[in-house]
Amino acid sequence: MGILHTFWNSPIGPKTTHFWGPLVNWSIPIAALADSKKPPELISGNMTAVMCVYSALFMRFSYMVRPRNYYLLVCHAANETVQLYQLSRWAGAQGHSQEKVEDAGGA
């Protein structure tokens, strides 16, 4: 019971935004992970690149803020990983479609 009491009253516990912000923010990488089953032609390259920059910036923020918010750091690290995967899928689809256009133009 003492561990729960300590967690409840900690500076990053459930009484603070340091807990609830990352919890709600997990919806972003979860949605990106769910989108990984969709065709890569539906991925917005611009938006995915912006999400990569956003996660990288907020990983630094979550480490530098006091108290350090490791919950947010892990959330944004997961989002960065999933968004980079999505960006690679998008880039692969763009390269593949570019090859199709070149093949069709040369035939």
UniProtKB/TrEMBL annotation:
Listed transmembrane segments: 43-63
Membrane topology reported for the UniProt record: Multi-pass membrane protein
Superkingdom to which the source organism belongs: Eukaryota
Pfam hit, one: MPC
Keyword field contains Zinc: no
UniProt-annotated location(s): Mitochondrion inner membrane
Keywords: Membrane, Mitochondrion, Mitochondrion inner membrane, Transmembrane, Transmembrane helix, Transport
InterPro entries per the UniProt record, alphabetical: MPC
GO molecular function, one term: pyruvate transmembrane transporter activity
GO BP term, pick one: pyruvate import into mitochondria
GO cellular component: mitochondrial inner membrane
Family: Belongs to the mitochondrial pyruvate carrier (MPC) (TC 2.A.105) family.
Functional note: Mediates the uptake of pyruvate into mitochondria.
Protein known as: Mitochondrial pyruvate carrier
